[in-house]
Amino acid sequence: MVTLHWKDLWGELRARIPDDCYLGGSHVTRVVGTDTTTPGLVLDDGSQHDFDLVMFADGYTSVGRSQLFPDSTLEYRGYVLWRGLLPESQVADPRPLEDRLYRFSLPRLHGNGVFYLVPGEDGSIAVGERYVNWAHYVPVSPEDLRDFLIDKDGQHHATSLPPGGMRPDAEAELKELLVEHLPPYFAELTSITDGTFAQPIYTYLPAAYRRGRVCLIGDAGSVVPPFTGSGVFKASKNAIDLGAAIAAAEDLDQALEKWSDTETETAHRLAALGDQMEQAFVWAAPDLGTMSAGEARAWWTDSISFPEGFTYIAAQDQR
Ligand SMILES: Cc1cc2nc3c(=O)[nH]c(=O)nc-3n(C[C@H](O)[C@H](O)[C@H](O)COP(=O)(O)OP(=O)(O)OC[C@H]3O[C@@H](n4cnc5c(N)ncnc54)[C@H](O)[C@@H]3O)c2cc1C
Questions:
Q1: What is the pTM of this model?
Q2: Of 230, 224, 231, whose CA–CA distance to 204 is shortest?
């Protein structure tokens, strides 16, 4: 597993875009001319900009997707990712976290959680300056989701609750629940974290990645259950594959069609893996703490059967 700081990732990508091509703060409201060879983007100031090729990389609530495929809807999976970032300086003894990623199943509860260290605010990885990043997948029924997304000021959020936005009663309730189920060290990390935030988990499976000369990239194109850890990989692979397909082809429309078919198939395969992992980690998670290494390995190989040979278990540990 490779961990990256979002700020570094964004900075590296942004540095490759010339300033005069980057309209920061502009919002695309719609795409026009999707069935022509020069589709156009309309911005919130009313201006229209025409291109040979348009790529929407506008995330899981994509404006582009909703216009290309008006019937597309996100599917809520019945659980949210509740997250916290705790400054390492507030942890009495951070040593157990060093070079480890802990994943917990929660006996008697659906869901699971992870804890690991990430770089600090300025990217520092010095001891004492990092953050403990934790995340718990917690079921919230579709009926309760609307209430869950009301913040501490009574505002309803359509997609996620931002850091510090959760209602104190909702945050306290989750902390109480988790403290009851986690080992004391990790229960403490969870309960002392301020400003937690949450994101409902959705999926979207595409029929295609393009219409005409308008393409979808990343979460705009597909959203799979998060356990595959493939969000950034998928977004960058869509873009790299698109560049390669266009460079190799003589006919742009044929290249786009072929690219769309390949990316659609990959998304469906990723979703199939994500479904299995979601089932194993959220809805049918065993009490890993009571299992022997052999039992845990058997649970994993029985749970994840597609794609063939996929494993998290390092080669030396398989013996
Ligand atoms: C809590 C959480 C944890 C995650 N952890 C991981 C992880 O550990 N590893 C991993 O690989 N993936 C992770 N993901 C998934 C990952 O964040 C996404 O898959 C990835 O960011 C998708 O990239 P993207 O470029 O498609 O979309 P986004 O990163 O969502 O970017 C879309 C951009 O488009 C902009 N935008 C949206 N609408 C418009 C508009 N109309 N006009 C102009 N601009 C617009 C947005 O402001 C945003 O900057 C996580 C996701 C969440 C929610």
A1: 0.91
A2: 224
We find that the CATH architecture of domain 75-202 is: 2-Layer Sandwich (3.30)
The CA distance from 316 to 22, in Å, is 47
Q: Residue 255 above 70 pLDDT?
A: yes
Tell me the longest C-alpha to C-alpha distance in the chain. 63
Could you tell me the CATH superfamily of domain 6-73+204-279? FAD/NAD(P)-binding domain (3.50.50.60)
Amino acid letter for position 9: L
Give all strands of the β-sheet with 54-56 in edge-to-edge order: 54-56, 214-216, 210-211
Ligand 1 centre from 169 Cα, in Å?
Answer: 28
Segment 240-245 shows an average pLDDT of 97
Q: What pLDDT does 64 receive?
A: 97
Residue 27 corresponds to which tokens in the numbers above? 């919002």
Cα angle value 148/76/228 (rounded, 5°): 110
pLDDT(128) > 60 = yes
Average pLDDT over residues 253-280: 95
Can the peptide bond before residue 39 be classed as cis, meaning omega within 30 degrees of 0?
no
Please check whether residue 166 is in contact with residue 197, taking contact to mean a CB–CB distance below 8 angstroms.
Answer: yes
Residues with CB under 6 A from ligand 1: 27-28, 57-59, 63, 81, 83, 199, 218-220, 229-233, 235
> Which residue has a Cα nearest atom 19 of ligand 1?
231
Q: Residue 267 corresponds to which tokens in the numbers above?
A: 């998304």
Q: How is the chain split into domains, by residue range?
A: 6-73+204-279, 75-202, 286-318
Which among 138, 232, 242 is the best mutation to test ligand 1's pocket, defined by most ligand atoms within 8 Å of the CB? Answer: 232
pLDDT tens digits, 93-121: 999 999 899 988 877 788 889 999 988 88
